Structures are given as structure tokens and as C-alpha cells.
Amino acid sequence: MSKKQLAIILSQLKSNPTPNPSLEQYEIPGDLAAEIINQALLSGDIRDKVVLDLGCGSGRLAIGCALMSAKKAIGIDIDKKVIQVAEENIETAEELSTQKIKRKIQFVHSDIEEFKGHADTVIQNPPFGIQKEHADRIFLEKALECGSIIYSLHRSYSKSRMFLTRYVEKYGGKVDSIKKFSFRVPCMFKFHKKPAVSFDVDLYVIRKQSTRK
Q1: pTM of structure
Q2: Residue 92 located in a structural domain
Q3: How far, in Å, CA of 37 to CA of 30, rounded?
Q4: How sure is the predictor about 211, in pLDDT bands with cuts at 50, 70 and 90?
Q5: Per residue in 51-86, pLDDT tens?
Q6: Closest Cα to residue 129, out of 119, 120, 139, 121?
Q7: Is residue 152 part of a domain?
């Protein structure tokens, strides 16, 4: 499957019908999800790997990894309703792709702080920390606890890059690269005044080096 085909399929999956602003449940656009997954695939971090998506929402990243030959894709989310949406999206993805991927995907209703497990690769779109300051740090800590290599999206600020790089090192990781992308958010909440907005995000590729200092 090409990156373009993957983007088309992921874009057709159902979004969270009742997003919670306090959880910052912003759906990753299908084309951006496909771009990240393709980058991880070309780097050898998807095919035949166990992949974990922390804060999986409606499951685009986990489902995309399964479609691109992950051995197993696990999605974790605290929102029970959105887990149900993610389960429904597996069937949609199977119909659109003609692939049988259900056996390779597991969605788990859990607070990520309580989750225990290990994966080869973590791919995540954590909260940006707009509604709850530093909310993304919890996801980084758990990703470094569970995975060997992490692909993580964060708001793009020069000061944040310096801070997050040091923060990752504190928890035993090393930032291999940072790449900027555009993240489009449609009107989702009452406080949104425009039909859609776009802002810059950074994809951090992080490699686990050691245990926490």
C-alpha cells in the first residue's frame, strides 16, 4: 500500500463524535498520520514490529500501522466511547483495504499512567498541553518506559524544542530528529470561532538510550 492510499483510507475513518476539550482530543489528519507511519516504515520501525499508540483516539495511527504490516498494534485511551469508535474503524479499514487486520489490533480502555507493557515502537499524538499545561510530558514518560523508539507529535515552538530535548534525555532517551508539519483542526468545540485552523507541530523521533537518571 502506498502512502497516498493509506492517507485516503485513514481520512475516511470515523472521528470521535463527542470530543472532550479537557482531554484535547484533536484527531490527527489522515494525510499526516500516513506521513508519520510511512516515515517509521521506511526506518524499519513498523513491519513485523509491536507498535503502541498512547492516547489512540479513534485509532488512525494504530490501524494505519496494522495496514502497513505491523506485527501487532495496541491503542490505549482513557475515553471508553472513543475506543468503541476505534473498534468500528477496524471494520471500515478492512472493507476499504481488503486486508484482514482485526487480529493484529488491540484497543485498551485505560489511563496511560496505569498501562504496563512493552512495544518495539511508540507512535503517538499526545495532548499539546493547551488546556492542561505539560499534559504531553506524561505521554513522553510512558512512551520511554514502554518503547524502544518513539514518534511523538508536539506543538512547534523553539523553546519547546530545547526543553523537550532535555526532558527526553532526563528520562533515558535521545532525540534523533525533529521534523515540522502542519496540523489542521476542524471546528470541534463551542469556543472555536473558525471553520478550521492549522498550526505547526513537530514530530520528534526519539530513541531510548538508558533507564531514567
Answers
A1: 0.90
A2: yes
A3: 11
A4: low
A5: 999 999 999 999 999 999 999 999 999 999 999 999
A6: 139
A7: yes
CATH number of residue 121's parent domain = 3.40.50.150
Of 156, 167, 155, which is closest to residue 130 (Cα–Cα)? 155
Question: Is the residue at 163 inside a domain?
Answer: yes
Q: Is there a domain that residue 213 lies in?
A: no
Decide: 125 and 93 in contact? Cβ < 8 Å: no
* Alpha carbons 137 and 128: distance in angstroms, whole number: 9
pLDDT at position 116 is: 93
Range of the domain at 112: 3-208
Q: How confident is the model at residue 213 (pLDDT cuts 50, 70, 90)?
A: very low
Q: At what angle do helices 135-146 and 158-170 cross, to 10 degrees?
A: 40
What's the structural domain count of the chain?
Answer: 1
3-class secondary-structure state, position 206: strand
Q: How far is CA 50 from CA 9, 127, 165, 190, in A?
A: 21, 23, 25, 38
Q: Which residues pair with 180 in a beta bridge?
A: 202
Cell of 174: 535521545
Beta strands at 105-109 and 119-124: parallel, antiparallel or unpaired: unpaired
Q: What span, in angstroms and rounded, lies between the C-alpha atoms of 85 and 192?
A: 23
